[in-house]
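User: Teach me something about this protein's shape.
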Amino acid sequence: MGTFTDIAPCNEVQPVPQTRSVSLVEIAFGTFIVLGHNVFHIVPNEVPILFVIGWLSIHFRNGGWAALGLKHPVSWKWTVAFAMGAAAIRILLGELVTEPISTHFFHRAAVSSVLKNPAGDVKGALLTLVLVWTFAAFGEEMVYRGYLLTRAAETLGRSRVAYWAAMLFVSVLFGYGHFYKGPAGVLDSGVAGLILGAAYLLSHRNLWVPILAHGLIDTFAVVVVFFGLQS
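Assistant: First, the predicted structure itself:
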């Protein structure tokens, strides 16, 4: 059974200055794309753009997404259990801590348009599940936890501290990736980014963990809407 404690294996080659410079350019451009779409509305949606750029970058610079953890895990049982735990923490923390605090200081976070189906709408719920598992769970996690976090960590030297610092930066960026939800939504999504990012690092950079956790979190939201349980 694999360990879930190592973040930067001791035999991993540390990036040379030229590599770090390229990573800095990529993370700067990625930041521009995220803010350019969500805050300034001057570029299209960041996920498809960064997904394509990230795919090409990871292919040519890292040899493929397996280097970032998108491969057959040592244990699917541990992977699913870890994802379920991360999802549960995010849901409970959001309901009991983040949402009450954020709504106390800001207006209530806006709801994503994909979660505005009327209760009992089977067709709408199924379509939403397809969207959240492809665009949100797979797409956003490949972009944020996979591509951007890795490039940020490379810029900082790819040490254990670098990965955690990169995770914090990308979590803030992830929060601003949901700028349309308002200040409360940015805070809530930033906290979600922290949980997903921590799960990614603590699971030995197993990218399936945040992908599955993200999908489970959004599936829970779809179920709540479908049964009319939202407050």
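Now, about its shape. The CA atoms of residues 51 and 142 lie 7 Å apart. Confidence is low (pLDDT under 50) at residues 1-11. If you'd like, I can walk through any region in more detail.
User: That's plenty for now, thanks!
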